[in-house]
């Protein structure tokens, strides 16, 4: 993959190339930034550069390039088996061949996940150490790309720490993280952090025109809603995207809470509890964004809002219920639910409790 294939991020690409040219490449790099900004695309482009743009990279099967990513335990795996990246190598490479921009949700679907949470196991850290102990097959760098290292369990994280403290010769680690604050502090201290900015709307607009054939007006609106997130731009082009379902669930929650319809709120909670945990967390993140957008809608400054037409149509009547008296408490309520779901709390209890508290907060003026 070439840096020219990365959407926007010209400044970041130039900085990475300069590090390579001056032979100042850190042995461990932590790529951070907003979702959809192209962190993985930059990691793949930089890895390709370090591996001399070898033809073997066309299928991402270079012997000196190692991928680590969160996995799940499938029903057919033995009781004592800890899943590792190699168990899912085929769907991983198929996803990479479709593009460098993807989401956790897309990866979970490719693995066939239902309600599981994907993690990086201790066995995976052992596999990293084993793979990187081998000499470079091409006589140059070995590159280890670790996608979502914050999903390591504690044992796995501690084993990786030991590898980072005594890295193999001419090995470059690239950790691509969505939530770096959840990494062990000791791991963060062993890496050089690179914070990438969200993609400029103009770059997304041009990419939509060139790659997707959109006309300028539609591309501009999609780019504005995407707000620097290429993955979100692609979702907006998908007529059946998940956010439309989340909007329906958000509207239902707010209407039932306003009517104090406890019976149907309980049914709503039971429906949500059937979603997988990863989807529940994505939904709560969407709810938090909608609360923010509705609060800002009250200021009647279009430049401050980033909503689809359907979201805006609902907000015209709903936004007045999100005000200075409740916006912080509602956001904190959703954040607590997001945290509790991540900690494997009972989903029915979490969502029904959240819905009941929403009744009180929604009528606060």
UniProtKB/TrEMBL annotation:
It comes from the Bacteria. PANTHER family: DNA POLYMERASE III SUBUNIT DELTA, REPLICATION FACTOR C / DNA POLYMERASE III GAMMA-TAU SUBUNIT. InterPro entries: DNA_Rep/Repair_Clamp_Loader (IPR050238), P-loop_NTPase (IPR027417). This is DNA polymerase III subunit delta. Gene3D superfamilies: P-loop containing nucleotide triphosphate hydrolases (3.40.50.300).
């Amino acid at each position: 993959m070439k840096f020219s294939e990365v959407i926007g991020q010209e400044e970041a690409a130039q900085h990475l190339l300069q590090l390579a040219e001056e032979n100042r490449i850190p042995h461990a790099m932590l790529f951070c930034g907003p979702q959809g900004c192209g962190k993985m695309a930059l990691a793949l482009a930089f890895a390709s550069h370090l591996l001399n743009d070898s033809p073997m990279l066309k299928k991402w099967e270079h012997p000196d390039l190692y991928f680590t990513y969160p996995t799940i335990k499938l029903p057919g795996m033995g009781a004592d088996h800890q899943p590792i990246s190699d168990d899912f190598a085929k769907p991983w490479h198929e996803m990479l061949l479709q593009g460098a921009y993807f989401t956790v949700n897309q990866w979970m679907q490719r693995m066939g996940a239902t309600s599981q949470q994907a993690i990086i196991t201790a066995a995976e850290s052992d596999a990293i150490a084993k793979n990187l102990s081998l000499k470079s097959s091409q006589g140059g760098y070995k590159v280890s790309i670790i996608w979502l290292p914050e999903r390591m369990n504690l044992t796995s994280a501690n084993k990786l720490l030991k590898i980072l403290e005594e890295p193999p010769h001419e090995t470059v680690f690239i950790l691509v993280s969505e939530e770096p604050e959840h990494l062990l502090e000791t791991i963060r201290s062993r890496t050089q952090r690179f914070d990438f900015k969200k993609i400029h709307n103009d770059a997304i607009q041009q990419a939509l025109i060139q790659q997707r054939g959109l006309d300028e007006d539609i591309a501009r609106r999609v780019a504005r809603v995407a707000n620097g997130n290429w993955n979100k731009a692609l979702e907006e082009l998908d007529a059946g995207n998940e956010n439309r379902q989340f909007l329906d669930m958000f509207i239902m929650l707010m209407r039932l809470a306003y009517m104090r319809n406890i019976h149907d709120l309980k049914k709503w909670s039971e429906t949500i509890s059937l979603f997988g945990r990863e989807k529940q967390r994505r939904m709560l993140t969407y709810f938090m964004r909608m609360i923010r957008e509705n609060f800002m809608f009250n200021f009647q400054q279009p430049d401050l809002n980033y909503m689809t037409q359907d979201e805006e149509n609902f907000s015209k009547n709903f936004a007045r219920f999100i005000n200075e008296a409740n916006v912080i408490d509602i956001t904190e309520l959703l954040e607590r639910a997001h945290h509790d779901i991540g900690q494997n709390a009972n989903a029915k209890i979490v969502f029904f409790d959240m819905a009941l508290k929403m009744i009180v907060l929604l009528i606060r003026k």
